[in-house]
Design brief:
Layout (H helix, E strand, L loop, with lengths): L1 H15 L14 E6 L2 E8 L3 E6 L13 H4 L3 E6 L16 H14 L5 E6 L1 H12 L4 E7 L14 H13 L7 H15 L5 H4 L6 E6 L6 H9 L4 E6 L6 H4 L1 H13 L6
Helix pairs in contact: 3-4
């Protein structure tokens, strides 16, 4: 389906841009597997200081943050993870939910003996960041969520009616029971974004930690939807980046890194 497949292709392109000297996402010197809720979750740790958890988007991996880890690892203990069923973190089960991944992240912090952390989530990772703060509020000091949506329809996502119909037709006609290996996992990831998330505005009211909600003015998430998210979190700032698509932390990496660091290091003042 045009929208979703082009979206996934865009994320893949982002993951391949700007190759660094350190192979983030495939660095044995920094990486380790942790037994978390029935899976072996892969994460890499860089730097020292207050803990900072990085959560990537759908079908991505730690490498999505290759432009951010070098900056933040100078000041923070950066914990970059491969979410369930993505990157090096394998999960062969059929079902997957954002709530499941948020619980994974809380359990990973427990496995690392970390009481709480700053959190940056991008795209699906931004959704995970919101749910982590909702379901495990004690785990989040401050959160940054960029490119997140609360529900999977055209009021949240930039998608035409025809694209929506094409996606539904694909779901109705797909013989998913015959898929194996990577194709099966890719289909699971597609269905995740097609049917989820399902977060209510009331749930956002439970987020008490200071939050920075970000979107690009040409994001695949409607700007109005991003504004709605910020309006329903009691202690939230809103930042809409001009001349930016979905990849705010990549397209505007220097400005993103500086702005987020300022948010983390400056006392929150309700406006």
């Amino acid at each position: 389906m045009k929208y979703f497949f082009s979206f996934f292709l865009m994320l893949l392109c982002y993951s391949l841009v700007g190759q660094q000297a350190v192979n983030y996402g495939n660095n044995p010197a920094a990486g380790k597997f942790y037994n978390v809720r029935g899976i072996n979750m892969y994460c890499e740790i860089y730097g020292e200081g207050k803990p900072l958890l990085l959560i990537h988007g759908n079908g991505g991996s730690i490498s999505a943050f290759k432009n951010n880890i070098p900056y933040f690892s100078k000041k923070y203990k950066v914990i970059a993870l491969d979410s369930r069923s993505q990157g090096k973190t394998i999960d062969t089960n059929d079902s997957l939910s954002f709530e499941m991944m948020a619980d994974d992240e809380a359990a990973l912090l427990d496995a690392l003996h970390i009481d709480s952390a700053y959190v940056i989530g991008w795209s699906d990772g931004g959704i995970n960041a919101l749910l982590l703060a909702i379901r495990h509020p004690e785990k989040v000091i401050k959160l940054v969520s960029t490119g997140a949506n609360l529900w999977p329809d055209t009021t949240a996502l930039v998608m035409t009616t025809e694209e929506w119909k094409q996606g539904q037709l694909m779901i109705d006609t797909m013989h998913a029971d015959k898929l194996t290996g990577k194709k099966k996992n890719d289909w699971k990831m597609f269905l995740l974004d097609w049917f989820q998330p399902n977060i209510s505005l009331q749930q956002l009211h439970a987020i008490k930690c200071p939050s920075l909600i970000i979107g690009g003015d040409h994001d695949v998430i409607h700007t109005e939807h991003t504004v709605l998210i910020s309006q329903n979190i009691p202690n939230a700032y809103l930042w809409i980046l001009p001349n930016s698509g979905h990849g705010t932390l990549i397209e505007h990496k220097d400005e993103f890194n500086k702005k987020v660091d300022e948010f983390f290091s400056t006392p929150f003042v309700k406006r």
